[in-house]
Amino acid sequence: MDNEHITWMERTFDLAEEALKSGEVPVGCLLVYDGKEIAVGRNEVNETKNATRHAEIVAIDKVLKFSEENKLDSKAVFRQCVLYVTVEPCIMCAGALRQVEIPLVIYGCANDRFGGCGSILPVHSAELPSLGPSLQCISNVMAERAIQLLKDFYKGENLNAPENKRKVKNT
Amino acid sequence: MEDVSNCCGNDLTSSCSKKQFTGEPTLIIKQPEAVLDEVYYCSLELVDIFVCTIKDKKKTSEIVKNICKHLPLDKLTHLKRVRSNTNQADELQIIVAMNYEEDFLTKTWSDLCEKNPVYCHVSKPFMVKVSKLPPLTRQQYNNAVQYWPCSFHEDKRITRLLNRSFFNAEEMKCIHKNMEEAISVAKSSVYKLHIGAVIVDPKSDTIIAKSCDLRQGKHPLQHAVMVAIDQVATVQGGGMWQLSDKSSNNLQKHSCRIEKGDKTGPYLCTGYDLYVTAEPCIMCAMALVHSRISRVFYGSPHPEGALGSKYKLHVQPGINHHYDVFCGVLQDHCHKLMSDIT
Description:
The structure holds two protein chains of two kinds.
Chain A: H1 3-21, E1 28-33, E2 36-42, H2 45-48, H3 55-69, H4 74-79, E3 81-87, H5 91-99, E4 104-109, E5 136-138, H6 143-154
Parallel strand pairs in A: 3-4, 4-5
Antiparallel strand pairs in A: 1-2, 1-3
Helix pairs in contact in A: 1-6
Chain B: H1 4-8, E1 12-19, E2 25-29, E3 33-34, E4 46-54, H2 60-70, E5 82-84, E6 92-98, H3 104-115, E7 126-131, H4 138-144, H5 156-162, H6 169-187, E8 196-201, E9 206-212, H7 224-235, E10 273-278, H8 282-290, E11 295-300, E12 324-327, H9 331-339
Parallel strand pairs in B: 10-11, 11-12
Antiparallel strand pairs in B: 1-2, 3-12, 4-6, 4-7, 5-6, 8-9, 8-10
């Protein structure tokens, strides 16, 4: 596995863990443009009372802000971005990523509930010309860690508890 | 009823006034079309099975008992095991097996015949075609029984949805009123793309949020539906998008007060209906799943739409929330909004 991907993914996990601590579904997302991190996002559905505020959507908002502040054409910025996300983008997010024309997504584990890059529907590659160009995906980058985070969330485990006292159930 | 005629245009199949007992004129209004799972529209699929003719009818109960015991059917349970032959009403036929095993006749059947004298009272098995799937609609049932009798548990709700007899006149009035609101907000846009969305609480018949499409402005994801969802969040004390756009200037004042006395408070779009002039895209359709919308009414279809055209996301298996979808509401008016773009 490409070391660069691992490095960025490590950083993306910090965001997912931040989401978990805030009581949100632990998903983190990061956008790299020109070799630099320009936007991050993590799930903020509960805080905003808006179920569409997934990490990717939050990060897209920030790319628009970044582009405006730096007087860059946001369309051109998106087209040269790589998006890292701990979990496969959902159907909604896959549609959103195609619309802003992000070419490449690197993600951790599959999303069996809502996955839009093949798990439930292949929105990333489907014939949807008016939505935008198809989306290239690299999956399974640090998937185990992403799964563990989700398990921790859905079991309501306390991440702050000492390691040896945490309930770890394997499925 | 009179005011309904103002908004209906071609959606009135006839504007003629048929006198009812009350003497008031009534209008026949075309109901929106329910967008149901493909299974309700499937045409008949046939499969081959083996059946025998019962030669001695006095032995019927003994034969049925033995065959059911020796040759249980784990599939095709919708089929009646025995039928009277359609050509000769006094002749009974019984299903003995699905046509799976190649050596059924030479092996399974001949073994049974050797061991059980009761099998001498039936003919040699022969093949007939039957409906492969249990019928879900009256239409499918009528087709299936042409081949072999089967059981049918009619879902009255599905029947009314298919017959377009789901809504009463009062509900139709509300549906048209809300879609007119969506059309009017679509027209208010400063952008070329005219799409409008309105989110309504049907219990109180109040508008919670409404927005035109802002994707041609600063934010490519601000489709009318996405903005309306965020406005619902704003009404509930959340929300993310500060809309400075001209198109949304008058939106906040329309965002209504949360119902008082509701201790738990509203949760996302639970219990709400969406009216949108064009069929939602896959992003918006999934946003509505996440938001737990109750029903979606849209006007004109889009070839890449996710609620009937390209996908039927609202009935997609594996997803944890499903909602009802109705299309073709004031379709001509909604379609015109899109074709007005020059």
